[in-house]
Every structure is written in C-alpha cells, then in structure tokens.
Amino acid sequence: xxxxxxxxxxxxxxxxxxxxxxxxxxxxxxxxxxxxxxxxxxxxxxxxxxxxxxxxxxxxxxxxxxxxxxxxxxxxxxxxxxxxxxxxxxxxxxxxxxxxxxxxxxxxxxxxxxxxxxxxxxxxxxxxxxxxxxxxxxxxxxxxxxxxxxxxxxxxxxxxxxxxxxxxxxxxxxxxxxxxxxxxxxxxxxxxxxxxx
Length: 197
Description:
Blueprint: E1 2-14, E2 19-31, E3 42-53, E4 57-64, H1 70-87, E5 92-99, E6 105-112, E7 123-126, E8 130-138, H2 144-157, E9 162-170, H3 176-179, E10 185-192
Antiparallel strand pairs: 1-2, 2-3, 3-8, 4-6, 4-7, 5-6, 5-9, 8-10, 9-10
C-alpha cells in the first residue's frame, strides 16, 4: 500500500478559550489485488487534521489484548460498560477504545456526559488532552488500518512526533450501516508533539 499527498489546506481559528490550527492534507491510499484477472485499484482518501483537543471523560474497562482479539474484546467491553452506565442512570456518548502502547493495553468504553462512579471493573478514565492528528474513516472496521497508516505517514511527512496513545471513537450505530457499511464512521486520533511556532 502506498500513500501520496494530493493537497493541503491550512486554517487557524482563534477563540477566547483556545486556538485550533487545522492542517488538512489529503492522502490517497492505493492498493490493488492482481490474481489472474486485473482488479481496479481502490482509493481511500483521508483528510488529516491537526488540532488541540480537551480531555474527554470516559467510563472504561481496562484490558491487554492481542490484535486478533480486538474484534471480540472491544464490542464485549463496550456492552459491559453500557450496562454499568445505565445501572447508574448516567449519560453516555459514543464508544471509545484508547490504545496506550504497542502491547495493546487498551481502555474500552464510552464517553461520559455526566457523573459516574466506578462500578467493579468499570472505572473512570479520560482521553488524553492536547495536540492530536486525526482522520475520519468511513467504512467497515476491518479497513481502519489504512486510516491509522494515513495518520502515522502524515505525521512522519510533516515532522510531528507521536507522543503518546492513540484512540478510536466509533459513531453511534445506525440501521443504514447494516445495508451500507461504507457509511460506518470511526474517528481516529493520535497524540502528537506541539506544532512548531
């Protein structure tokens, strides 16, 4: 798989609370499969954004998992966390998986939109705050690797050092995704070094 930069846009927004620099570079991911018959190339386009985000409170379950287990562990833990959130009549948001290191120490759960108390293995945590590079992936979860690669490649190309964890925020499931999985939304975030002034 290869990536090429196809364009760049920069915008600066200032408000009394924060400054957000949004640098959008579009990467095109190209791959082709050539068994006996020629198959057309598939193109995935990602707009990589650089921005400063606040920390978001979470209710999570902590696990260490192998990559092959994630497709089971993530939904299982999300369900257990939602049970705990509902038991307290707490308000939750989207599903989140925070990957703390390469050994796949992961925190899986939901955004908290109000108070929550630890309940057994479901504990309070938060996404990291600070500078992030991010993309939005549309499509089945099996294609998320290309989104992660696009962010890492963009960071290398633009000299932004990865400084901590990365995390995925999964959109609320919609019935239309059952018939058109190309609309499934996942936002991918990587914590990065502070941009040079």
